[in-house]
Write the structure tokens for this entry.
Amino acid sequence: MTQIYNKVALIGLGLIAGSMSLAMRRAGLAGEIVGHARSAETRATALEIGLCDSVFETAAAAVAGADLVVLCAPVGAMGDIAAEIAPYLEQGTTVSDVGSVKKAIIDAVLPHMPDHVHFIPAHPLAGTEHSGPRSGFAELFENRWCLFTPLPDTDPEKLENLTRFWTAMGANVEKMDAEHHDLVLAVTSHTPHLIAYTMVGVAEDLQRVTNKEVIDFSAAGFRDFTRIAASDPTMWRDVFLNNKQATLEILGRFTEELFDLQRAIRRGDGDHLFEHFTRTRAIRRGIIDAGQDTDAPNFGRAPKKDA
Amino acid sequence: MTQIYNKVALIGLGLIAGSMSLAMRRAGLAGEIVGHARSAETRATALEIGLCDSVFETAAAAVAGADLVVLCAPVGAMGDIAAEIAPYLEQGTTVSDVGSVKKAIIDAVLPHMPDHVHFIPAHPLAGTEHSGPRSGFAELFENRWCLFTPLPDTDPEKLENLTRFWTAMGANVEKMDAEHHDLVLAVTSHTPHLIAYTMVGVAEDLQRVTNKEVIDFSAAGFRDFTRIAASDPTMWRDVFLNNKQATLEILGRFTEELFDLQRAIRRGDGDHLFEHFTRTRAIRRGIIDAGQDTDAPNFGRAPKKDA
């Protein structure tokens, strides 16, 4: 047990906050965990499952006396929350967040932050297709990366404490600037999500193939896309609205490349297709070697082969 | 033990043939399993792991005396194999295949088939991102669909035997015409694969994001695409070359829909994005209810939450 903060306030009580609470308790990182959610039902659930020691009807009330405040709400709500809590933040409090975009959050939150608090933007690259307070689990952050995009004048001691905090929850921490973060995530997360949402929408809209066929015959590839496309709609709406520039840039690259392969199919250029399909195997190997995915066939979903 | 065939010849000894062999032996479906692969190394492996009771240097030698011949080679190789084995097929033999497209295979194989054999095209919707004879496992076909695209004059008894055969290996069997099969698979498999290959290629090509960043920060969505994009390049080259029309049709629909969402991002139309992202959740639910995917978060890759 190595307590790092006396009182942690979680604003927004979904998958990430729920997992943080379990990971904090497991490692004894917080003296007390309090929280706020807009929905009375979510607050009641959070109390019932012990996600929070106490819950508050307003974010302002939740942050009183906290030495760490973590904004776990959808990206689009961060600015209003920052404005609301600002007058109630204690001297020396660290304010952080878990949002999937960083530049827009800094632009929305920083102007509200009083000089006596330390705002350190952060983004744990972890999640599942499930959402809500009951979907959290303590192991969510294990060997996942938490990216910090600290501002130039960040207090080194506060940064060190937050690094220890995330490390103790199982994550690896790396620092980069916000703009680069948003580009990296446009590649590794935002564009893949948009593409998956698009493909699932196409399949659902077709007249000549029934939804029953799409569902029954999904195991040949399509089902993987539906997991991503089942992610929380509010969260993802806000991601795209707030990482517009980088997402559109990567989508442009994607379309260019797709047209190139489409043209190869139309022209029957098998060598071009083969060359492309061979090249993409290496990066899968890298991801497995880096411990970011399993090498088990089909993500280990299918019964295992006899070793 | 309910033996259905005396001697089964597998032409092409990769993931599917390897899994069929294990599933056949488990259920006692074949008196003898023989095979052929072009590569001497693959043939040696097949003998070593017991995939086949005996292997042959030519497909022609392998089919002699077989009452079931299953073509398990890449789609583009089927026509030549059919031409080679035709003179050696016994009276009454059933010839089938496991190819991912059906119309092109019928066009390539049927002209070579003598009148005294029964050609029943089939496609088990099962596989993993791994390939080769060692990647097979007996459970691969369990609760997966095997689609038959029988020709109009197919012998009902031979069709019934092949249905019993696949059912005994764990699959559900459904019949449809070849053209519809190719459209359904363009939606549920071929286009998703092309999109995944494209996205992984884009990520690998970027100058402003390093491959190390792509790999380390892949858990936020991208890693799912890399599994599909690690599939066998020869197999997939042949799929696209041989299901050109349906794949291009679905790609056209995909691009149309992608541009619609891209435009919503550019214009900041959050309602449109939210509506689309909400709609796509239902089909995921259907796939889970149909037993075609797991409801465990992240396909069950992450440590499970305490129930």
In short: Residues 178-205 of chain A form the longest helix (28 residues). Chain A touches chain B through 116 residues (CB under 8 Å).
